[in-house]
Fold each of these.
Amino acid sequence: MYDYLIVGAGLYGAVFAHEAKKAGKSVLVIDKRPNIAGNVYTEKVEGINVHKYGAHIFHTNNKKVWNYITQFAEFNRFTNSPVANYHGELYSLPFNMYTFNKMWGVVTPEEAADKIEEQRKAAGITEPKNLEEQAISLVGTDIYEKLIKGYTEKQWGRPCTELPSFIIKRLPVRLTFDNNYFNALYQGIPVGGYTKMVANLLDGIEVRLNEDYLEKKAEYDAMAEKVIYTGAIDAYFDYKLGTLEYRSVRFENETLDKPNFQGNAAVNYTDVETPWTRIIEHKWFEFGKDEEGNDLPKTVISREYSSEWKPGDEPYYPVNDEKNGQLYAQYKELAEKEPKVIFGGRLGEYKYYDMDAVIASALDMCEKQLA
Ligand SMILES: Cc1cc2nc3c(=O)[nH]c(=O)nc-3n(C[C@H](O)[C@H](O)[C@H](O)COP(=O)(O)OP(=O)(O)OC[C@H]3O[C@@H](n4cnc5c(N)ncnc54)[C@H](O)[C@@H]3O)c2cc1C
């Protein structure tokens, strides 16, 4: 008999398991995948840590979370500075003075602000009726046409004129020379990969892989006083109220016989003709932009395609619309009636959590449970 059965060896499950063990509880962790680390799993290919379920950049303003997670990994100085490729023209992201200089030749922040204002005025949109009008009314026509339109249409699979304006309430425009995508105090990638970081969290804890809790639920329930469940909440209830929807991404990985493909971790393809939304070159998460990475003769890239999600596909981003929100609320009511099961994490709470938020949420739960 264990004090806690933890379903899911992702970040939520691993943090809870670590803290429970530290508090003297007996813990068993199971995961239906063949590996630990959930969606932050990194796999070594040609000496490079490949982010198998999508590129993950750790960034946070939460000092408590940063102090906590850096006990389990050293973080490098990676700063997310994506590049936009529009038909071979390269622009800095997020929109900043480098972007405006390349777009219009403007040199000072004042000139850039005037140019944006001039284009907004010329468009004459007072009440935006769709995403296209909203974007133009915020940043003008040139940035919209070259850097927003194609990318957004590929992401959503629909023309911007058919997308609601509320999707982009505001667009960050920086009148400084700053290519750092995140406004976070702490940022980086764990040296050695996320899998090693999660393995450190799970050090000394019994973990069983390739075990689906829902297939042997009664057996597993009988083994523990309490269950921390980080799988999908609708799956737990056998989808009896319906299926919660997700947005999906498809990754096409390729190992190339060259040391450097694009010179940056992320390049967004912002034209509509290129079918992928972006290309990730994994080695640049680890080695920074210095020469070191060139010691490796090969490189691994992932092309990302937005794809429609259907039941059975890998669930990525919860869809935060009214329909799914209401369905989740009904499942949550059922979950609250489960006597010994606690639902947590991005699938258990049907919530888009960044890594820092999921760690904070697991630590909160530990305080409630283990005090
Ligand atoms: C494409 C993508 C990119 C992202 N990029 C970033 C980023 O750059 N920065 C950032 O901060 N965050 C990012 N995130 C968010 C990050 O992935 C999550 O915050 C984090 O992985 C959530 O951890 P979790 O433990 O809740 O869930 P998960 O990692 O999904 O772990 C849940 C685990 O439960 C297991 N499981 C489910 N059902 C069962 C079952 N029945 N039996 C046994 N095991 C089961 C699963 O196999 C899985 O291993 C990204 C997310 C996505 C989708």
Note: The longest strand covers residues 246-256.
Amino acid sequence: MTVPRILSSFFSLLAALWGGPAVVPASAQVLRQPIPDKLVVLTFDDAAVSHATVVAPLLKKYGFGGTFFVCEFRPDFADKTKYMSWPQMAQLDQAGFEVANHTLTHRHVNKLTPAQFEAELDSIEQRCATYRIPKPTTFAYPGYDTHPTALPVLEAQSYQFARAGGRRPYDPTTDHPLLIPSFSTAIADKLDIKAVVQQARNGRIVVLTVHGVPDYAHDWVTTPPALFEEYLKYLHDNHYQVIALRDLARYVNVQEARRTIQPKYEQLK
Ligand SMILES: [Zn+2]
């Protein structure tokens, strides 16, 4: 156990005994500035073609940010009625959205050796370089499967934030930045948008995972366009701030979060 960790445990113990905030709360160092209420992160997985044709124009209409976690789903990636082309992904970047890493072939990290995982990340980074998209700094776990071996690989390749599932809000002072929970908007998950986004307060951030709008490759994760626009309209009319995952760096001191927050793998699926 390192000295800072012993100190931080000691202060946590004091806080627990007193029932009040710690003398030197770790949260003060983890947060660069207070998390505003009504902060929502939008993320879009799997390079569905509707991300370019439906989602991006709607996000522009409402002035929202978003992260597109891209991969080359096999064997159908070549089918452009289902998946975006790399030039379409480059256009998302040029339009101000974040294009980020979801592994090349949608491999679950708990089934990969560190070397295989690194190669999957590298392949997406190389394609980004080819299409003049900046090197991704955020990652989404395929299938929401996480594993302790993934964290050192992500850290070594300078990833700042990584998103899983888990149907709960993200608390930057207790959740590790490479194990961020999210809620799915797929129609099958019957998301109650009001109940979910209301949880974006008291330091918590709501992260949403969206697949195709609609999804022509995997209909069990589809979000119908009318429903998706209803969600965006609700966020807009109720004054939510909607950002990309990389934008969390404005609020979260990632180095400090890594140093002080123990990775926890529960409730991420
Ligand atoms: Zn996926």
Note: The pocket of zinc ion is lined by residues 45-46, 102, 106, 142 (CB under 6 Å).
Amino acid sequence: MTSTVPDVSTPAGIIRLGSAFCDAKALLTAVELDLFSTLCAVPAPIDEIRDRLGLHGRGLSDFLQLLVALGLLEKSGDRYRNAAGADQYLVRGKPSYVGGFLQQANRNLYRAWDRLPDALRTGKPQAVGDFSDVVGNPERLGHFIGMMDALTQVLGPELVGALDWNGQSSVLDVGGCRGNMAAHIVKAHPHLEGHVFDLPQMEPFFTEHMENSGLTGSVLFHGGDFFRDPLPQADVVVLGHVLHDWDREQRAFLRRKAFDAVGPGGALVVYDRMLDDEPTHVENLVISLDMLLVTDGGAEYPVSEIRDHATVLGASSVRVQPLGDYDTLVECRKTVS
Ligand SMILES: C[S@@+](CC[C@H](N)C(=O)[O-])C[C@H]1O[C@@H](n2cnc3c(N)ncnc32)[C@H](O)[C@@H]1O
């Protein structure tokens, strides 16, 4: 998928790009109001939408028409209905729901981006509070998990299909959150023993998720700090959307530790929104700036960083492939003995 930007060789295109945050905020507001869940299976005229959502009514027609123009709603007669994509991905409770990412973007990233100039001047993150505040507050941790689940929900089937899992007997997802990616992998390949390593505060969320997924006992949780505590060994060790939270030295430390945890003949598998050496990919540059705004030293990084390090670590081969629309997967194999 390629990102499109308006024609910025014209004043109209430049102004349009400068107003793109309004389009985004319209979508984020619709998700915050849970408009798409409200309209799921029950198209409604404007007055009914106003009443269902408890809105004033002023501006509502323009708001709904903007969502039509953005392709998120459709209108037939006087009734608004969800367009196909909104109906599949923005209705709460559907397994394909990605609104968790948007809700957290609205709560956290939207405000942080307002402070981009401060981040660029100081090099300091601008989000309210740091990750220890999130981890220490179950409600905020739940919001964070919703954001991560939205990503792994899309990438799970991609990762399942991207690797040859035959001949492997275990998988460890380091920084695996509440185990959503591990659940995808083990469901598709039940011969695998699943392991998730994450901060101890994640365990109750993990336990509940495994119960709901019917995977209790098939995926095990290991609580700890990956900078201080040992990692369990596994044939395939995954580091997904983890390295971009940290600075270059910390990324190298985590890669070494994860590669050491790989059993003979296994692989370290990294996925992230990696950048080209001369990056022009709008979506991934935006995510890299997200990392500037919400972490102390994180950023997206080029594939070459992993490739070069894999040689130092002694990987027998390195394979790179796209994963989903925006991510890159790097598989670093370990020799059999
Ligand atoms: C950005 S999320 C990635 C989640 C998931 N792997 C994915 O693909 O989206 C980073 C994960 O690393 C975990 N984490 C952060 N610091 C950690 C630490 N010091 N030790 C263990 N896990 C940590 C977080 O709790 C979170 O689940």
Note: The two ends are 40 Å apart (CA to CA).
